[in-house]
Amino acid sequence: DVKVTQSSRYLVKRTGEKVFLECVQDMDHENMFWYRQDPGLGLRLIYFSYDVKMKEKGDIPEGYSVSREKKERFSLILESASTNQTSMYLCASSLRRGVETQYFGPGTRLLVL
Amino acid sequence: RKEVEQDPGPFNVPEGATVAFNCTYSNSASQSFFWYRQDCRKEPKLLMSVYSSGNEDGRFTAQLNRASQYISLLIRDSKLSDSATYLCVVILTGGFKTIFGAGTRLFVKA
């Protein structure tokens, strides 16, 4: 069974703080993704990575950066949190390019005050 | 216009009913299609893939119409446990660009 874990289920941060969200998958998947989910907007892709140290911008990368130093771990960084980054953040992984089924972590609900 | 559009619902149906959802997509470079299910405050999980020839998994049937650029999900004999949000997912040619619909909420009532 694929397992994707996220470092926190709930986070409360203040405006301007640097925020780290971590995601770990245990199935040797090549691809990892970070999404945010907001009511009425669905899931929107922030960044994805198809290999260690590789990253690609998704649809809404502004205000975010990512890091993938190890294959199993993909971190999302909010350099200076803002209130409009209050959202549900979901990490996902997929086996390799061409195998598109994505497996999601449980999500992190981030509240920026 | 959103690249993937779904009726947000909610659809309120009694147990045992048949319910159908449609999803339209605008990008003709779409190559793969899926339905995911998301329970309240949980992560999305793959429900089924959608093939051109249509496919069935128990009470669930998925159809793809490439000419009209829509996919559908039919649920027969609805159960209380089917209550969830159903997400339409489209993957573009190349395999990386994944677009999620905003979801259709279903409530099945006793």
What's the count of strands of chain A? 11
Distance between the termini of chain A: 37 Å
Largest sheet of chain B: 6 strands, mixed
Task: Quickly count the helices of chain B.
Answer: 0
- Give the DSSP E fraction of chain A (strand runs of 2 or more residues): over 45%
Tell me the structural class of chain A.
Answer: mainly beta
Q: Looking at the structure, what is the overall shape of chain A?
A: globular
Distance between the termini of chain B: 37 Å
Helix share, percent of chain B: under 10%
What composes the largest sheet of chain A?
Answer: 7 strands, mixed
> What is the averaged pLDDT score of chain B?
92
How would you characterize the overall build of this protein?
- The complex is a heterodimer of chains A (113) and B (110).
- Chain A is mainly beta and 113 residues long.
- Helix content of chain A is 0%, strand content 53%.
- Chain A has strands at 4-6, 10-13, 19-25, 31-38, 42-49, 56-57, 64-70, 73-78, 87-94, 103-104, 108-112.
- In chain A, the strands form 2 sheets. In chain A, strands 2, 4, 5, 6, 9, 10 and 11 form a 7-stranded mixed beta sheet that branches.
- Chain A is globular.
- The N and C termini of chain A lie far apart (37 Å).
- The relative contact order of chain A is 0.33.
- The mean pLDDT of chain B is 92.
- Chain B has no helices and 11 strands.
- Chain B is mainly β and 110 residues long.
- In chain B, strands 2, 4, 5, 9, 10 and 11 form a 6-stranded mixed beta sheet that branches.
